[in-house]
Design a protein that fits this description.
396 residues, alpha/beta, six-stranded mixed beta sheet, four-stranded antiparallel beta sheet, 17 helices, 31% helix, 19% strand, globular
Length: 396
């Protein structure tokens, strides 16, 4: 896929102009299998061909640290900026997150090494076919069995079974969450509150094995972006802190190590007002024939009442077609939005209609999603600001 040519705004938004994630060669789902293959883990394949194996590998995932956001803030992130040329094995190119570009989906892609159509976490919220209810896949509400929802082993589990020292260093709050269990479990979990402690412990665990696979995570940049926007002083302050954390970890790497700094998605600030925030809860045309509204503002799953799917698709295309790529479930699958294959158990979790934003616009739901509808920074779709993520590298 050409990195930039497909991002041009066509009129109208034909589905074949949506810029697909680079599943199989350069997406988040390809990262850990490539690194684990270099560590000799059976069954893993190195699909990101630009990466060179290392005996000790650390992935530092910064929630919300998009490629374009680094490019736009060299003063706040001098160390990250100095590493831009190292991205993706020295090519200076980003990875793609996968669709939708949202935390639950991306973390599952990272940890399982599978695209969304296989691991089955296809958005912020998605319909549970067993109950007919919307399930929040970040908060895991309402409860459902994690192993039934996502049955595949994680790369960390496979690495641990192969004798690799596998460790996750993150907030203690994440140790026993269902999302951690289905996406990131395997090996040892070490919980620490401060970012500095996480960096120090990540370096220690890298050195603890002749072959090591360590994952660490920082969430607060994303929180600042959602609440205040990526143009805010608060967000820029968080970026400065992230820059110091990355440098702190890089300076402690043991011999034969590779550090990879990546993210689950980028972010865009969406202005307030009716022109940019289309309210599903007050728009009778968009509500007609819709049983459930899933996903999030820039990446919607729309579940129709029985028999109404075609009518809903027609209306959503007519109303939103110049601002969103609007596809039927089967069209989105055929186009490869969720990966090269969608498992049978995942198919009914996808919307009858899937809408991905192109412009700086949201489909909010002011009554049923009041908190989400008030966010300044948003993500989920396939625009470069949301979809492109770094893979910055430091080696010893």
């Amino acid at each position: 896929m050409s990195q930039l040519s497909a991002w041009d705004h066509p009129e109208p938004l034909a589905l074949d102009t949506a810029p697909l994630p680079e599943y199989g060669t350069g997406s988040l789902a390809d990262l850990l299998p490539t690194l684990a293959a270099g560590l000799g883990v059976p069954g893993m394949t190195a699909t990101i061909g630009e990466l060179t194996p290392a005996d000790r590998v650390c992935v530092f995932l910064v929630d919300g640290l998009g490629w374009e956001q680094i490019l736009a803030h060299p003063d706040e992130a001098p160390f990250l900026t100095s590493l831009l040329g190292s991205s993706r094995g020295g090519t200076g190119r980003p990875l793609t997150a996968g669709y939708p570009a949202t935390t639950a989906t991306s973390l599952a892609s990272v940890g399982t090494g599978l695209p969304p159509g296989a691991h089955g976490l296809p958005g912020y919220t998605a319909r549970n076919p067993e109950t007919g209810e919307l399930m929040n896949q970040l908060r895991w509400q309402p409860w459902t069995s994690p192993r039934l929802w996502q049955p595949y082993p994680t790369v960390f589990q496979l690495a641990h079974e192969a004798g690799v020292h596998a460790a996750q260093v993150s907030s203690p709050a994440f140790e026993n969450t269902p999302l951690t269990k289905v996406a990131l479990s395997g090996g040892r979990f070490v919980g620490r509150l401060s970012g500095e402690d996480r960096m120090d412990l990540a370096a220690e665990h890298l050195a603890a094995g002749d072959r090591s696979l360590v994952y660490t995570y920082y969430a607060e940049l994303d929180g600042a972006g959602h609440r205040y926007g990526v143009a805010s002083d608060t967000w820029r302050g968080q970026l400065m802190y992230v820059d110091r954390l990355v440098q702190r970890l890089a300076e402690q790497l043991p011999p034969r190590s590779a550090l990879y700094v990546t993210a689950d998605h980028g972010m865009v600030d969406v202005p307030f007002g009716d022109e940019h925030r289309i309210d599903f809860d007050t728009d009778w045309e968009l509500r007609a024939g819709v049983a459930l509204l899933g996903g999030e503002g820039r990446a919607r799953h729309v579940y129709a009442v029985p028999g109404a799917a075609n009518d809903v698709l027609t209306v959503w295309r007519e109303v939103l077609g110049e601002q969103f790529w609007v596809a039927s479930r089967d069209e989105a699958i055929a186009a490869g939005w969720f990966g090269p294959h969608v498992d049978e158990r995942v198919y009914p979790r996808l919307g009858d209609v899937v809408a991905a934003a192109h412009d700086d616009v949201l489909i909010i739901a002011s009554e049923r999603e009041p908190k989400e509808s008030a966010l300044v920074g948003n993500h989920g779709s396939m625009t470069p600001a949301e979809q492109l993520v770094p893979l910055l590298e430091v080696r010893t």
